[in-house]
Amino acid sequence: MEAARVVLTVPADASFVRLIRLAAADAGSRAGLTLEEIDDLRIAVGELCVQIMGPGEAPSSLTFAISPGRVEIDGVGPPAPESDFTEIAESIVSAVADAHDVSTDGHIRQFHLTKHSTPARA
After folding, report:
1. Is residue 95 part of a domain?
2. Paired residues of 108 in beta bridges
3. Distance between CA atoms of 119 and 55, rounded to whole angstroms?
4. Is position 122 within any domain?
5. Number of domains into which the chain is organized
6. CB 80 within 8 A of CB 86
7. pTM given for the model
């Protein structure tokens, strides 16, 4: 089954992180993640979105790929001022995401985030 793709474009304004977190929660629900896994996904995407909410008019864009048991999110936008991915942010995202990556290429910052469901224990 091919992943369902949803693209969300928001202004470069940190107040839109709430909307992104809601979209991530819906994506997690559609993928069949548990409530705890959905909360983890929301935390991770919130931390990562701060990295792509730079100043100015350039919007940030997120692509959600939703498949059974798995959500992948790619985000791209202008780097936030002084947006080095801090050790604290790295620790938080590492604790709640299954995989993530943050990179900067010139005036573009991007991230990739993966969260999947944990197989049920017998």
Report:
1. yes
2. 105
3. 41
4. no
5. 1
6. no
7. 0.90
